[in-house]
Design a protein that fits this description.
Elements lengths: L2 H10 L4 H8 L3 H8 L7 H11 L3 H5 L22 H19 L2
Length: about 100
């Protein structure tokens, strides 16, 4: 697992290491070790991390560079070089279209 990705996802979700350690039933030191690439989580912990954040293991392991949900809900395939900040605009537009068609 790429520790920096775990740290980024954790921070993006507004969790502190202490909070994640309680969710995963490991010590805060263990979380720090994962994030600093000093320790590697076992497969069960990796799956729990993926479920906790609804993020693919492929992303957490560094096999892909785009965040994809674990459940693959609302998955949209965009070109590889599509600007990351433009992705949110695409999602906003989709929500607008959904709202429009639901209220016709």
């Amino acid at each position: 697992m790429k520790g920096e990705r775990l740290a980024e996802v954790r921070k993006d979700r507004g969790l502190k290491q202490r909070e994640l350690s309680k969710i995963l039933a490991v010590s805060e030191t263990t979380i720090s070790g994962y994030e600093n690439n000093r320790n590697r989580p076992d497969d069960e912990i990796k799956v729990n991390i993926a479920k906790t954040f609804d993020i693919s293991l492929d992303y957490l392991l560094g096999a892909i560079d785009d965040e994809i949900t674990l459940t693959r809900d609302n998955m949209i395939i965009l070109p590889k070089d599509f600007p990351k900040d433009a992705r949110s605009k695409v999602l906003e537009y989709i929500e607008l279209i959904m709202f429009k068609y639901m209220h016709e």
